# Entry
Amino acid sequence: MTLSRREQVILTGFVLAVLFGILGMTLRKQLDAMEALRGQLSLLRDQRKSERALIDSAPVWKARYEDVRDQMPVFPMGTQVHTHWGRVMTKFAEMYGVNILRQQASNDMPLGDVYELSIEVREWEATLDGFLKFLHAMQSEGAMLDVRDLLIRPHPSRPTILRGSFTLYCAFMRAEAVEEQN
# Structure
């Protein structure tokens, strides 16, 4: 079978079109992959820049830590600290008329030299003024106490009373960690 000159040109054009199509699809996939890699590279550069800034700010954070370290209470290893922090919270709650109905303490968790304990207050009731004074007193206690995950809602039957929940995070050190630093 012999192809005419015209058929040979059409066949050559068809083969070239198919080859260029395959090349175009392959090239598109490669370009998309390169673009994705460029995006990842950009994210990694941003992450590196952020991490470098944190590393460079280490002296500032160490100085701030040294400023508050002496304010942080120190407990012997094995001491149940949730009773201490529970008493501090109860003292402020009684002082400002906050009624703590349900609470649960977690186990203390080491974060380097510092330990953290969370006390989840699942239900409380108070007036707005009393609760704000309670929160202010807790925050003013120093670097040891931090109120997080705060939820406030109105009491269903008493319009001047609020209800809600919050989690109190308490920071402290263990005696063994303090001795190792000195």
The chain has a mean pLDDT of 86. The longest strand covers residues 114-126. Strands lie at 74-75, 99-105, 109-111, 114-126, 145-154, 162-174.
